[in-house]
TrEMBL record:
Single GO cellular component term: plasma membrane
Family that this chain belongs to: Belongs to the ABC transporter superfamily.
Originating gene: oppD_1
GO biological process, one term: peptide transport
Domain ABC transporter: 5-256
Native organism: Pandoraea aquatica
Main location: membrane
SMART domains associated with the record: AAA (SM00382)
Protein name: Oligopeptide transport ATP-binding protein OppD
InterPro entries for this protein: AAA+_ATPase, ABC_Ni/Peptide_Import, ABC_transporter-like_ATP-bd, ABC_transporter-like_CS, Oligopep_ABC_C, P-loop_NTPase
Pfam families: ABC_tran, oligo_HPY
Record bears the keyword Protein biosynthesis: no
Gene Ontology MF term list: ATP binding; ATP hydrolysis activity
Cellular localization per UniProt: Cell inner membrane
Length: 356
């Protein structure tokens, strides 16, 4: 698999009334060409801030203080605003939760779609711009696209506005599309239509996706890989089927137990007790410790190191997982091949049993 984008130790700080706080903390993630990565976590865990950091779209009080975002051999965090503006839209698109926030209410749909061809391709001919705009609106299945060019966003339904936003973002065939909860504001039927459309476009163009969602069902149906975020950090990641079948981090296990008929937690549904702390309230050690049934003094004192297996495809940041995995692996006296996989499965099973 070709790695399209890779973030390493990405850290973003925000300056506010309460001083400087860390919103994205040491985040590392990898998106492979043509694959989709789900970014999952509770509200406030830093999903949007991570996406905005990847695309250089931070608020004026935000700054990347550490790490890099490798894309086609370049570190995006080091590019100028002008260089990033060329990459956004042309190579990497971004769709937001509510298309109303990304569309200009004062411009017609036609003008907003044409703008992308005007800015990135330098096309000035009005007839050509209209033709290209109709073409891309038809690709996202806007009915009567030619007649709708002169409509304004408020004349479109929420689902149709989201299609327009997708059209603008795929117009130049980007290799990566970042979708920040693109369907949360839509009803279930429209949500499914938009997801189907995204999947079709992804397959037609071998486009990679970062798909931000709270919905674990959706993520499992739609994505290949998953990264679970908590308190500005990624706490567990890997191929989604494996992570959901064998979660190793107590937070992932807790999320799955709160979802009906997902994974193996069909009998009893439970919310994770407590709340995710705000940016200024993060505890010193593991950020999940105040809510974690397995927390020890070590967890409260020290942030867990990353623990990797399956050649780095699976990662977890949890002291207990690391300990259980090590104990499971130890009797075999080696850390390769099947024994490696067995140990991970045994360790994961113990974490789940003890969280339950
Ligand atoms: N401009 C800002 N200034 C200060 N803090 C901010 C700003 N934007 C976001 N935050 C804080 O950063 C943290 C991460 O926010 P972010 O929007 O990335 O969360 P999220 O995981 O996307 O949540 P949601 O699921 O609700 O969209 C939150 O605590 C949020 O309050
Ligand atoms: S490091 Fe400790 S507190 Fe954190 S998730 Fe693991 S067991 Fe729970
Ligand atoms: Mg968000």
């Amino acid at each position: 698999m070709t790695v399209l984008l890779e973030a390493k130790n990405l850290t973003t700080m925000l300056r506010g009334k309460q001083g400087v706080v860390t919103a994205v903390d040491n985040v590392s993630l990898r998106v492979e060409a043509g694959r989709s990565l789900a970014l999952v976590g509770e509200s406030g865990s830093g999903k949007s801030m991570t996406c905005n950091t990847l695309l250089g779209l931070l608020p004026s009080n935000g700054r990347v203080v550490q790490g890099e975002v490798r894309y086609k051999g370049r570190d995006l965090t080091r590019l100028s605003h002008a260089e990033m503006a060329k990459i956004r839209g042309r190579e990497i698109g971004m769709i937001l939760q509510d298309a109303m926030t990304s569309l200009n209410p004062l411009l017609t749909i036609g003008d907003q779609v044409a703008e992308i061809f005007r800015v990135h391709r330098g096309i000035r001919d009005k007839a050509e711009l209209r033709r290209l705009s109709v073409d891309v609106l038809e690709r996202v299945k806007i009915p009567a696209a030619l007649e709708r060019l002169d409509s304004y966003p408020f004349q479109f339904s929420g689902g149709m506005r989201q299609r327009v936003s997708i059209a603008i973002n795929i117009a130049l065939s980007p290799q990566l599309l970042i979708c920040d909860e693109p369907t949360t504001a839509l009803d279930v039927t429209v949500q499914l239509q938009i997801l189907k459309l995204l999947r079709e476009l992804q397959q037609q163009r071998n486009m990679a996706l970062i798909f931000v969602t709270h919905d674990l069902h959706l993520a499992s149906q739609f994505c290949d890989d998953v990264a679970i975020m908590y308190g500005g950090r990624i706490v567990e990641s890997g191929p989604i089927a494996d992570v959901f079948a064998r979660p190793t981090h107590p937070y992932t296990a807790g999320l799955l137990r709160a979802v009906p008929s997902l994974g193996r937690y069909e009998k009893r549904l439970e919310a994770i007790p407590g709340q995710q702390p705000g940016l200024t309230e993060w505890p010193q050690g593991c950020r999940f410790a105040p809510r974690c049934p397995l927390a020890t003094q070590q967890c409260r004192d020290q942030y867990p190191d990353w623990f990797e297996w399956q050649g780095g495809a699976r990662r977890s940041a949890c002291w207990q997982t690391m300990q259980m995995w090590t104990q499971s692996a130890a009797p075999r006296g080696n850390e390769t091949g099947d024994a490696d996989a067995d140990a991970a499965v045994n360790g994961a099973a113990r974490v789940r049993r003890e969280v339950a």
